Amino acid sequence: MDITQAVVLNLAFALILANVPFLRLATVRRWHPAWNDFIGWVAGYALWMSASLMLEAASGKMVNKSWEVWAITSALFALVSFPGIVWRHLLQK
């Protein structure tokens, strides 16, 4: 896999995982919907970063990551989840 294909695949995966928690897939919810959305969002972020680390390991040498990487990627993940937030909390009312 080319590095460009890996980047596009990674960003598409982030876009999908960031918006999945805001889709209503089940009608039964235990907690408050905002907590369900947040837990799903954190789980999606963890899956995305795991996949990103696997893609990085497959493409070559792993680089040490400091707190800046985690801050930027969480901000990017929050940014790409905006369509799901708008759909769930603004358009479904």
Account of the protein in words:
The structure is a single chain. The protein is an all-alpha fold and 93 residues long. The protein has one domain (3-90). It is 72% helix and 0% strand. It has helices at 3-19, 33-59, 67-80, 82-90. The longest helix has 27 residues, at 33-59. It is elongated. Pfam families: DUF2818 (PF10993). Keywords: Membrane, Transmembrane, Transmembrane helix.
Strand percent estimate: under 5%
Classify the helix fraction into a percent range.
over 70%
Q: Helix/strand/pairing class, anyone?
A: mainly alpha
Flag low-confidence runs. Answer: none
Overall radius of gyration:
15 Å
What is the strand and helix layout of this fold?
Layout: H1 3-19, H2 33-59, H3 67-80, H4 82-90
Produce a short descriptive summary.
With 93 residues, this protein is mainly alpha-helical.
Q: Which features does this protein show?
A:
about 0% strand, mainly alpha, about 90 residues
